[in-house]
Amino acid sequence: MYELKAIDKKFPGVHALKAVDFKIGRGEIVGLVGENGAGKSTLMKVIYGAYKPDGGTVTIDGTAVRFQNPRQAMDHGIGMVFQEQSLITNLTVMENIFLGFEQQFVKFGVINWKTMAAAAKAQLAKVKLDIDPATITANLSFAQRQLVELAKVLTLEERIDGDLVILLDEPTSVLAKEEVELLFKLVRELTNRASFIFVSHRMDEVLELSDRVYVMKDGAVVDVVTRDAANIDAIQHKMVGRDIDKEYYREQWQKPYGDEVLVSFGNVSLNGRYKDISFDLHRGEVLCLVGTEGSGREAILRTVFGLDKPDTGTVTIKGEPVTRFHARGGVERGIGYVPRERKVEGIVAGMNVYENMTLSQMGNYASGGVLRISEEKDMARSWIDRLGIKTPNVYKDCGGLSGGNQQKVVLAKWRSGGSDIILLDHPTRGLDIGAKEDVYDMVREMCDDGVGIILVADTLEEAIGLSHSILVLKDGEMQKRFDGTPGDKPSLYDLVHHMI
Amino acid sequence: MNSFLTRDILVKWAPLLVLLVLIVFFAAMEPRFFSVRNFARIGISSAPALMVAIGVTFIIIMGSIDLSMEGTVSVCAVLFAFAFLAMGGTLASIAWLALPLALLVGAVIGLINGLIHIRLKIPSFMASLAMGFVGTGFALLLTGGDRIRIEDEAFRALLTTRWFNFPIMVYVALLFTFIAWFIQSRTTLGRNFYAVGGGEELAHASGLNVNRVRVLGFMLAGIFYAVGALLAVGRIGIAETATGNNFMFVAITSVVVGGTALWGGIGGVWNTLIGVLIVNVINNGMVVIGLPGYVQDGVLGALVIIAVVLSTDRKSVSFVK
Asked: What is the ipTM of this complex?
């Protein structure tokens, strides 16, 4: 009944959806899986009307539709249960359920709270939630809020005639195991009222709940499997897809690392983030932290950089135990941090190329607080040459550079300041293939220069291809350490097996 | 976009264009507007406001806001006057020490502003607004509501002595504008203001001591408010609680009209210079062509809204709720 045909969506530099076909029938539960960046969220946003596709058609019961906004999608029976919950926590449950649709309870300009409460009660009954509709939402548990959100979407039933399609975006990520069971039971019962699109990175859950599963990779649907025919290994293979290309990751350039230990973690724990982590990072080594979102990868990077103080254990940088934790300490110890969100944390848009490059080391280019700008420009020019940064001149606003060139500016910032420990958090996220290869080149060159790198890779192939050592994390605990010697690299399945 | 007149270029030069259009407009309406005498008048009224506006420009570049200027100007003016008179009442004596003292007072008030903002973690607009009231109250306490006259000829030379038809205070203001430009573009401090305003998280992760930058910014702003106070006293020869009146509206209006972005990171001293001139040309021009005073505030208020609407890509930026 609801069908997408050949949907295309492009963003500057990224082809986010490539001719995606998708359909869902009445009462069906359809799963949607894929790695981060595979295009799941973009596809969902097209479905609920937040994005307009660049190409392709959307039909409901054979009629073509084109949504301008989520409200129009809702009017056609498409509702969204958001991952980061969209309830307004300082309002009551009933106000949230009918947010934007209070008109039905208004008489003479005044809301009749009694009828609203009764109506809210009826909605909550659909999701078997027995709470007072006048409760302030902030007082509910996460599981309860999820159900309220579902109840809110189910109000569509009364508002429109026609079938409902409800999107569940990672609904289980905040739930405990029993709560997941309850949610699944509920969703199955609700299939007489609506069809569901279920998005999750927990493969077992998707297979347990869904009738069919769409597997996405690099913006395309690479397979559609029915539950009976599905097998976790096969789906994982499809998700991660391509065989590792040794050329692509410059494997032939990988050299053994040195003896000197740059960063040493000894049984380090940070409550709620990671537990009992130990590793050594050597000169010229790429050490990769692998795990799902929330497995503790980023938290460990933050501790190395000196942002978050661990509860127990010892962190040693170049032989010196770290006692005080603040960002300046990290910079002074020669650590450079290349964050995931370039636009937010990597470069300052509005500042030009040389200003961005000297940001972490202005003191080296100033006497008595007065900057020696010509020296800054000379330094910037030499790094523009060295890294092949494409910019018309050093005065160009970094916000106007392409993602790959912004990334090079960030690297130049740290390298020019003499950092020999570089933390890379998803350094290739959102870059096109050519720019990614440039980043891989730079990684190898840095190793040759004796820099130690801790990497949180964008894909598993990247992790395997680039790294000397791979630590697999799950729920903040280290599961396994792999050596990534060329010719004897671990396989994707080795890693995935320990991750999930 | 291939066109020469891209949106960016237009936004960048719009304030100067507006200023020129205004000058042509008023000159066409009333030829007396376009005279050296009248320009000197605009210069005199602009000078104190320019200093205050430049002070707050640094803060706005950092993405914060400082609303303490009226109180700060009053306190600096009054304390300067007391010290000046107590030490002899003429620049020819050691009473000149009252000048650096006034700047010091400005810096101290800025320091308090900054410390309240970062230590108590109060939004800057609230911390500084409250400090401004405290300042106004303190000035009133000191003067008891009296006006303090400064009749020293050497000090009043700020207004009375003219070089090339413009009084000395205009040149003093230009000198401090130049100093401000130097700080903004040639010092680590100025660079830090832009970094904090453009991306606080990033500035922090690059090892900048963001809190220190903020406090220094408020101190620097305080010093410029003090310079504004001295010029204001020089202009009318009186220091009183009301010396600071109206600076908040004029300063913020000028900064915004000049094209400095309220969310930080963009703009600077030259923008503010143009902004102050736009505001004062409008004020002066409306008097010259004979419009009543109450129209002027309305026009300026409308101008602020137009300036923000034109200079902001409001889809991509969400700022202060």
From this structure: 0.82
